[in-house]
Write a structure and sequence with these properties.
The complex is a heterodimer of chains A (359) and B (285). Chain A is of the alpha+beta class and 359 residues long. Chain A has 2 domains: 2-233, P-loop containing nucleotide triphosphate hydrolases (Rossmann fold, 3-Layer(aba) Sandwich); 241-358, OB fold (Dihydrolipoamide Acetyltransferase, E2P) (Beta Barrel), CATH 2.40.50.140. Chain A is built from 9 helices and 21 strands. A 6-stranded mixed β-sheet of chain A has the order 6-7-8-3-9-10, with helices on both faces. A 6-stranded mixed β-sheet of chain A has the order 13-12-11-15-21-14, with no helix packed on it. In chain A, strands 16-20-17-18-19 form a 5-stranded antiparallel β-sheet, with no helix packed on it. In chain A, strand 11 (243-250) and strand 12 (253-256) form a beta hairpin. In chain A, helix 4 packs across helix 5. The longest helix of chain A has 18 residues, at 171-188. The radius of gyration of chain A is 24 Å and the shape is elongated. By secondary structure, chain B is mainly α. Chain B has a single domain, classed as Orthogonal Bundle (MetI-like fold), CATH 1.10.3720.10. In chain B, 74% of the residues lie in helices and 2% in strands. Chain B is built from 12 helices and 2 strands, in the order αββααααααααααα. Chain B has helices at 2-35, 50-57, 59-93, 99-106, 114-125, 130-137, 152-176, 180-188, 193-221, 225-230, 238-246, 252-280; strands at 37-39, 42-44. Chain B has a two-stranded antiparallel sheet. In chain B, helix 1 crosses helix 12, helix 3 crosses helix 9 and helix 9 packs antiparallel against helix 12 (252-280). Chain B starts with a helix and ends in a 5-residue tail after the last helix. The mean pLDDT of chain B is 93. Classes of the chains: A alpha+beta (359), B mainly alpha (285). Chains A and B meet through strand 6 of A and helix 8 and helix 9 of B. Chain A: It is an enzyme of class 3 (hydrolase).
Chain lengths: 359, 285
């Protein structure tokens, strides 16, 4: 693919210190044109610093930032083909909505009428048509976010940088904006780089995701690969929920507490860990069998320790025979089927193909 | 409900009494006086506009009022223009942990009484003062400079020094309130450091600058001690004339009329400044 030959953004060997604090450790990353890319990680992992390095707000102590094939490591933010949506939105309080959106057009060639048309188009694109004359300080949180988006997109940047843009919105608004951001990105076709600590948000929105811990990138992959085949235990724990069971390995056979023996070749994948070997599986890859139900997978016996009812889903914590730590199982609720009670006997159907070994 | 009203009135009574006794009563007294007339040793209490006619027709009062506004305007411009860089430096360049120390240092001149500071300026600016001794000592001038004391320049220098902290603090507060991400947003949208300052920092600091302008201008127009001490004949301001009417010339009603006119002029200028500032900042408070 052209993405591999000619990345829009190429970061090579980035190192960044804040005093003694090592904020970025050897970041190498290529991001393609038109990609929706996410930087995901817990707070303090360096994802925002990396975004600010791409925008030009932070210098680096080593390494290069190339955008569109040009070295931009020492280029100031006003000369980069990137625009940013700030976490606080940074809407200018002394300007109207229209003047906020048109702020960056001063240096763009074209007459006033043409610029006004571009502002109107940008406002329409984010669903704020006709808001141009409103005062910026009278907007709601969601509207401010849209103004920030329009203000960045009106300049037609090569890259749009989004610094936790949805974290200040309530849940409903956030989900709505997720869908809208995806639609916008497809519509304008430029590269979006999103910083988020919300793994669900990253999975829903991104083409590819880089998971960061302590200043370095642990894994770069598409959402599904990241979820199914995490490269190490930190990634597996950060993305979604995973059940970890103690495991031991001998002669190509893995013995998992509570599940029994698995031939190593049947496993979904293997990944790294710092600690003792463990086997992991996601809550939705196993099913609790109801009386009379049969399943093709293997069976493990246990007892229900906890029930959490969510309406469409029920989460069960099941204590498997031969293992003290309960595993979490998520079950879709089906009409006519009762929710099991704490203490009930549970037969678990699972498959070796859904298990990842961390060793 | 009645109980609440009673309690409320009881609570506001002391400050209200204080404000009425010390602000409203003297002000009303001055206004009433301005419509009376001095009749040699007694005061004629029939209402008349004679004082106002005299104040507005005798050119000496107009000239001195204009000079007061000129001196005060110069002081205001110099003070605010020197105060802005200081406030900017403390707000943007000083590490947050050291900001209060800097503000504390800025207030040090206030530890000395206003009158003592004026006397110190006399020592500095005088014929045999610090400035002249140094300049003649290093051979830069042959004769001591005479235009730096006992004239309007001396008043401007002394007042600019005295009012510096009053200008620095409101500008500093306005600069502190500016969300730093706005400056980054401006850079991100293509503006360099200079244009960001002009398009974002300065408009957002405008309320502080307007406050500084008014805080310096209003009290300096009516300043009495500084022109009396360092102004000489050429640095006399309206307050000195008002004082002379009340005491030396024994014409309190004319002094009162001059006071009322000075207050009206300052009020109009202050309101005008606020109005222009509102217009410039796009109707935002």
């Amino acid at each position: 693919m052209s993405r591999d030959n000619d990345p829009l953004i190429r970061l090579g060997g980035l190192e960044k210190y804040f005093g003694d604090y090592h904020a970025l450790r050897g970041i190498d990353l290529d991001i393609g044109a038109g990609e929706f890319f996410s930087l995901l990680g817990p707070s303090g992992c360096g994802k925002t610093t990396l975004l600010r390095v791409i925008a030009g707000f932070e210098g680096v102590d080593a390494g290069t930032v190339a955008i569109g094939g040009r070295d931009m490591t020492r280029v100031s933010p006003n000369r980069r083909p990137t625009n940013m949506v700030f976490q606080s939105y940074a809407i200018f309080p002394h300007l109207s909505v229209g003047r906020n959106v048109g702020f960056g057009l001063r240096k763009v060639s074209g007459d006033a009428a043409e610029k006004r048309k571009r502002v109107d188009e940008a406002l329409e694109m984010v669903g704020l048509a006709g808001y141009g004359d409103r005062a910026a300080h009278a907007l709601s949180g969601g509207q401010r976010q849209r103004v920030a988006l329009a203000r960045a997109l009106v300049l037609r940047p090569k890259v749009l940088l989004l610094d936790e843009p949805l974290s200040a919105l309530d849940k409903k608004m956030r989900e709505q904006m997720q869908v809208e951001l995806i639609r916008l990105q497809r519509q304008v076709g430029i590269t979006f780089i999103l910083v988020t600590h919300d793994q669900e948000e990253a999975l829903v929105m991104s083409d590819r995701i880089a998971v960061m811990f302590e200043g370095s990138i642990a894994q770069v992959a598409e959402a599904e690969a990241l979820y199914r085949r995490p490269i190490d235990r930190r990634v597996a724990e950060f993305i979604g929920v995973m059940n970890f069971l103690p495991a031991s390995i001998s002669d190509g056979v893995v013995e998992v507490a509570g599940l029994g023996k698995i031939v190593a070749d049947d496993l979904q994948s293997t990944a790294a860990t710092n600690g003792a070997p463990v086997a992991g599986f996601r809550p939705e890859t196993a099913t609790i069998l109801f009386p009379g139900q049969d399943a093709p997978g293997r069976i493990a016996e246990g007892r229900i320790a906890e029930v959490v009812y969510y309406g469409d889903m029920t989460y069960y914590d099941v204590r498997l025979d031969g293992c003290d730590k309960p595993v979490r199982i998520s079950m879709r609720n089906v009409f006519g089927r009762p929710v099991l009670e704490i203490g009930a006997q549970a037969r678990l159907s699972w498959s070796p193909g859904a298990v990842t070994l961390f060793c | 409900m009645q109980q609440d009203t009673k309690r409320g009135l009881t609570l506001i009574a002391p400050p209200l009494g204080y404000a009425v006794a010390l602000l409203a009563v003297p002000l009303i007294a001055i206004v009433i006086f301005s419509f009376w007339t001095q009749d040699y040793l007694t005061i004629d209490r029939t209402l008349s506009l004679r004082n106002y006619r005299e104040a507005l027709t005798d050119p000496i009062y107009g000239a001195i009022m204009l000079r007061s506004l000129g001196i005060s305007g110069s002081v205001t411009l110099i003070t605010v223009m020197l105060a802005f860089p200081v406030a900017y430096f403390v707000s943007f360049r000083v590490p947050p942990a050291h900001k209060s120390l800097w503000l504390f240092l800025i207030t040090i001149p206030f530890w000395t009484s206003y009158l003592l500071r004026i006397f110190l300026w006399k020592v500095i600016l005088g014929y045999n003062g610090v400035v002249n001794s140094v300049l003649t000592g290093i051979g830069l001038i042959d004769e001591p400079l005479s235009w730096i004391l006992y004239n309007a320049n001396a008043v401007v220098i002394t007042l600019s020094h005295a009012f510096a902290p009053f200008a620095i603090l409101p500008i500093f507060v306005a600069l502190e309130k500016i969300d730093r991400s706005l400056l980054e947003a401006s850079r991100d949208l293509g503006e360099n450091a200079m244009t960001t300052f002009l398009r974002v920092t300065l408009p957002l600091a405008a309320p502080g600058v307007v406050a500084a302008l008014l805080i310096v201008f209003i009290p300096t127009v009516g300043d009495y001690v500084t022109p009396a001490q360092v102004g000489g004949a050429g640095g006399t301001m309206i307050a000195n004339v008002i004082q002379a009417q009340f005491r030396d010339l024994n014409n309190a009603p004319l002094g009162a009329a001059l006071s009322v006119l000075a207050m009206l002029i300052v009020t109009v200028l202050a309101l005008g400044t606020i109005w222009i500032a509102r217009r410039l900042s796009g109707g935002r408070d």
